[in-house]
């Protein structure tokens, strides 16, 4: 492939013509490394629900572009740190919970909730060690509605400025964000590039073909199902089908009747998706992280509004899992196609897949020119 053909300018021009990124962008480990450096480590990443960070000492851990991070509530509010001990670089905090201090489980170096190093066993015998020189490294941590985000840059621009308008769009669905409660959290792994998976998420051209249940619940016709880009996020909105509301679907469905009649599927650059389905107030979050070029790992969190029954909760989760299973079969197949490298480029349907084109442009802009 010539250098010229893969310059950012020519890739962006190709995308404008509906021509996709080259296949090796989905299989080359050096591209994944650059994405981790220039996409994941340079943007806000969702870490967990604000409702799990309400009391002093509550904490959540996670990873941003492979960097262990922790968010804690201290006397001043939310604070984020690189979750790695300044001593031998063991991870300090594990999972989620509540703690009075942040103590490393390796040699018991102990940090306060502001990240300052307070106690080091045997430090009296190490007069050259100044504890003030070794605080946990600070990062940015901010809430947007019920969602907490982190950014490795301690001076990152506010998350509200980038994604704030999404809160009003979600409010339009009938879901009241402030009342949502976390219900479940699951980790998952799939066998396709993270972009292959998100690009599948970003269009519903395939829905009528590949998702019989989803297609029975949601009106996916292009004049009804809307796709819109909003800078750093994009949104798909659909309406529940009348036949589904009346219980007349040909496919067995969960009970879609409830306060929420819209469906919404949002993508927040670079790797968070938010789903709302018709029925009782519900919202799920997925986070998608590269696990090498040919696999993706992530987690799903399900939230429900007050008073939602167990039967609805289980049925909706099963519905979401069925859609995810159908999508995994598609994206696994696409990844096998990409691994072969032929054809090198795909051709988009520009009126149905413009959110995918928008995403690929953001990738090109983040990575700059491709390596030889
Ligand atoms: Fe799908």
- Outline the biggest β-sheet: 8 strands, antiparallel
Name given to the CATH homologous superfamily of the largest domain: Naphthalene 1,2-dioxygenase Alpha Subunit, Chain A, domain 1
Instruction: Classify the fold: give the CATH topology of the largest domain.
Output: Naphthalene 1,2-dioxygenase Alpha Subunit, Chain A, domain 1
User: In percent, how helical is the residue content?
Assistant: 25-40%
Number of helices: 10
Low-confidence stretches: none
Distance between the termini: 8 Å
Q: What is the name of the CATH architecture of the largest domain? A: Alpha-Beta Complex
Ions, cofactors and other ligands present here are: fe (ii) ion
Radius of gyration: 22 Å
Name the beta content range.
25-35%
The helix/strand series, from N terminus to C terminus, equals HHEEEEEEEEEEHHEHHHEEEHEEEEHH
Q: Classify the secondary structure makeup into a structural class.
A: alpha+beta
CATH hierarchy class name of the largest domain: Alpha Beta
Number of domains: 2
The dominant shape is globular
The beta-strand count equals 18
Mean pLDDT: 96
Provide the descriptors you would attach to this structure in a database record.
single chain; 372 residues; alpha+beta; Rieske Iron-sulfur Protein; 7-stranded antiparallel sheet; 10 helices; 28% strand; globular; binds fe (ii) ion
């Amino acid at each position: 492939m010539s250098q010229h053909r893969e310059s950012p300018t020519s890739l962006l021009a190709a995308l404008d013509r509906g021509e996709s990124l080259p296949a090796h962008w989905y299989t080359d480990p050096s591209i994944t490394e650059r994405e981790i450096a220039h996409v994941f480590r340079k943007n806000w990443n969702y870490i967990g629900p604000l409702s799990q960070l309400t009391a002093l000492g509550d904490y959540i851990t996670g990873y941003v572009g492979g960097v262990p991070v922790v968010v804690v509530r201290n006397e001043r509010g939310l604070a984020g740190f690189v979750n790695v001990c300044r001593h031998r670089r063991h991870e300090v905090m594990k999972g989620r919970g509540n703690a009075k201090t942040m103590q490393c489980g390796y040699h018991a170096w102990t940090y306060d909730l502001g990240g300052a190093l307070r106690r080091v066993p045997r430090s009296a015998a190490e007069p050259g060690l100044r504890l003030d020189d070794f605080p946990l490294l600070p990062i940015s941590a901010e809430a947007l509605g019920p969602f907490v985000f982190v950014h490795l840059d301690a001076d990152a621009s506010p998350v509200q400025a980038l994604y704030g308008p999404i809160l009003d769009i979600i409010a339009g669905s009938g879901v009241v964000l402030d009342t949502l409660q976390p219900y479940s959290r699951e980790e998952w792994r799939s066998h396709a590039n993270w972009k292959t998976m998100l690009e599948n998420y970003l269009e519903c051209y395939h829905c009528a073909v590949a998702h019989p249940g989803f297609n029975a619940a949601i009106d996916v016709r292009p004049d009804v199902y809307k796709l819109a880009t909003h800078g750093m996020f994009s949104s798909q909105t659909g309406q529940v089908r009348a036949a589904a509301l009346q219980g007349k679907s040909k496919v067995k469905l969960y009970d879609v009747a409830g306060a929420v009649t819209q469906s919404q599927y949002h993508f927040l650059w670079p790797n968070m998706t938010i789903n709302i389905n018709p029925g009782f107030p519900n919202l799920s979050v997925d986070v998608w992280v590269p696990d090498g070029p040919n696999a993706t790992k992530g987690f799903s969190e399900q939230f429900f509004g007050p008073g939602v029954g167990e039967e609805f909760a289980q049925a909706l989760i099963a519905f979401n899992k069925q859609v995810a299973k159908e999508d995994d079969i598609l994206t696994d197949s696409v990844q096998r196609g990409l691994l072969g490298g032929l054809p090198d480029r795909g051709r988009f349907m520009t009126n149905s897949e413009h959110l995918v084109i928008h995403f690929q442009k953001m990738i090109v802009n983040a990575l700059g020119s491709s390596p030889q």
